[in-house]
Design goal:
This protein is of the alpha+beta class and 561 residues long. The protein is built from 17 helices and 24 strands. The protein has an 8-stranded mixed beta sheet, with helices on one face. Helix 1 crosses helix 4, helix 2 runs parallel beside helix 6 and helix 11 packs across helix 15.
Length: 561
């Protein structure tokens, strides 16, 4: 007797439905997409018990006729494509014709839909229609999904707690808020309204409603275009970060998608502007000819595949870097936020500010919080760690250690890029542990790209050439620090690993906190810092300086209200 059996239609139907609707959030996603494809300008979502007992989605879209309403819950019934050739140019959110079929197959399903004059009411359980009747005038569609997975007890058993299911739904809901600013949305849970978001004119206005006006001030516009792609969006200034990547939203032709590769391109664009294990808030919208993107590679349509992925990734990184270029990372103290948590000032690299520590010194202009012209005055050192500077419009507080880390890192980078080396007359022997020898053997090419030349032996290496940046007494410690850093970062890309290794080696000899400096040493440090390409953060993403403007000082002392 054959062991392999052809499954009956009912079992096949439930399995297929389970692939599309894994949890309440998936059903909400599919229903919102149907509403958007129906040209709705208002979508109201209401759920109970995390969506387990009720999911309700109402829109003011085009609605359906009685005939279309009945067909809509049939398998692979859709108005969005008519044949296989349409799959290469998808312009709608849905296209497979399986959303309502799948949802109605695993729930007690109710739909009212109309095109203005009258409406059709349908009720079914497990995709079996139990009632169809004509109702009064209505334009749009209301769908109620009761008792999700009532006929799949195993799936129902593995649903998470109400709060976890709600959080998943909320995450999906928010992703569509940023997809379409021209649509108003509401979200209600257990009778309590969570979101009431009106139509707005811009993405930053929508961000203001979802997050807050205060955070919106810390966002930067991203706009870039070439012959193949267009990118629009907003990203946070480097001082505004989160501990996870969950606040990075990616869209392709206004479709929310998940793309670890694009997220990494965004993060990589920030480089050392981000503190370790901190991530920006970003909403990036990519517009591309539908023929160059495949949205049919995942059952839930959350992943896409590009025909020219490397070009897309490079363009995203370039666009974010362009938006970040010129941002001033000097934290600006306010009464609402701790000094090291608020960074409001913006650098305009095209303008200039005079630093007259000596004739001919570098000129740069920082925004309105720093004087347009004139010299600064070094006031002194606090706690042998922070340099106080009178700017003429307030005071600048510089972290000498973070500032010197930045200086040394950029100088080492420049030496490496120029291939500036010192050939050691007396080669240096460095004893290493077996695991370090293994890293050396694996990473010899990477070390060579940083201007290190050496011979590897069983328990030591002999250094023969090193970057000219290092003093002789720094070489061994810097080399070992760089080696250990490479050992920790094996999962990262080669460029990021190289950058972090250079920073680690350079920081080893930096001026420390609690180190007393002369006035001349402080002036030299400030001069060198302002010559840096990015003088505003250390290589690890910490701010090098904060600014307290005149207005803020006067408010602190109640001279100004």
């Amino acid at each position: 007797m054959a062991k392999i059996k052809i499954l009956d239609d009912e079992t096949v139907k439930l399995i297929a439905a389970g692939e599309v609707v894994e949890r309440p959030a998936n059903a909400v996603k599919e229903l919102i997409e149907n509403s958007l494809d129906a040209n709705a300008t208002r979508i109201d979502v209401s759920i109970k018990n995390g969506g387990k007992t009720l999911i309700s989605v109402k829109d003011n879209g085009t609605g359906m006729s009685r005939e279309d309403a009945v067909l809509s819950i049939s398998k692979h019934a859709t108005s969005k494509i008519s044949g296989k050739e349409d799959l290469s140019k998808i312009r709608t959110y849905g296209f497979r014709g399986e959303a309502l079929y799948s949802i109605s197959s695993v729930s007690k399903f109710e739909m009212i839909t109309g095109q203005g004059d009258s409406s059709t009411y349908i009720y079914c359980e497990g995709n079996k229609i139990l009632k169809i009747e004509e109702r009064g005038p209505m334009k749009g569609t209301l769908i109620n999904v009761f008792d999700l997975f009532f006929n799949l007890p195993a799936r129902k058993k593995f649903m998470k707690s109400d709060i976890n299911e709600f959080q998943a739904t909320e995450e999906i809901f928010i992703s569509y808020l940023f997809a379409r600013e021209d649509v108003s949305f509401t979200l209600t849970h257990n009778g309590k309204q969570i979101f009431n978001i009106p139509v707005v004119n811009s993405l930053i206005d929508r961000f203001t409603y979802v997050y807050s006006p205060e955070l919106a001030k810390k966002m930067v516009s991203v706009e870039n275009k070439n012959v193949n792609f267009e990118i629009r969006g907003i990203i946070s200034k480097p001082e505004l970060t989160r501990k996870s990547k969950d606040h990075i939203y990616i869209y392709v032709n206004d479709r929310p998608v998940k793309s670890p590769e694009i997220i990494e391109s965004i993060i990589s664009a920030y480089g050392s502007l981000l503190f370790r294990d901190s991530y920006p808030i970003a909403i990036i919208k990519i517009y591309i000819d539908p023929e160059f993107v495949d949205v049919n590679v995942h059952p839930a349509k959350i992943f896409v595949k590009f025909s020219n992925e490397s070009e897309i990734l490079n363009f995203v990184k370039e666009s974010v870097q362009k938006a970040l270029k010129g941002i001033n990372l000097i934290p600006d103290v306010s009464r609402e936020f701790p000094a090291l948590e608020k960074m409001e000032a913006m650098l305009d690299v095209e303008k200039q500010l005079t630093f007259e520590t000596e004739k001919g010194i570098l000129q740069k202009k920082i925004d309105e919080n720093i004087p347009d012209t004139g010299s600064f005055r070094v006031v002194g050192q606090v706690l042998d760690t922070y340099i106080i500077v009178d700017t003429g419009k307030g005071m600048l507080i510089v972290d000498q250690h973070a500032g010197h880390e930045r200086i040394r890192t950029e100088k080492l980078e420049d030496d490496i890029n120029r291939k500036s080396v010192q050939n050691l007359i007396d080669p240096i022997t460095v004893k290493l542990e077996p695991w370090q020898i293994e890293i050396i053997r694996q990473e010899k090419d990477l070390f060579s790209s940083m201007n290190f030349q050496f011979d590897v032996f069983q328990n030591h290496v002999i250094l023969r050439t090193v970057p000219s940046f290092f003093k002789v007494q720094e070489i061994v410690d810097a080399f070992i620090e760089g080696l250990n850093e490479l050992g920790k970062n094996k999962t990262k890309g080669i460029d990021e690993r190289k950058r972090e290794t250079i920073a680690t080696m350079a920081c080893k000899g930096a001026i420390k906190a609690n180190q007393k400096l002369s006035e001349k040493e402080m002036k030299i440090l400030l001069y060198d810092l302002m010559k840096c390409r990015n003088p505003y953060t250390c290589p690890h993403g910490r701010p090098t300086m904060i600014n307290i403007g005149k207005d803020e000082l006067e408010k602190m002392f109640k001279r100004k209200i």
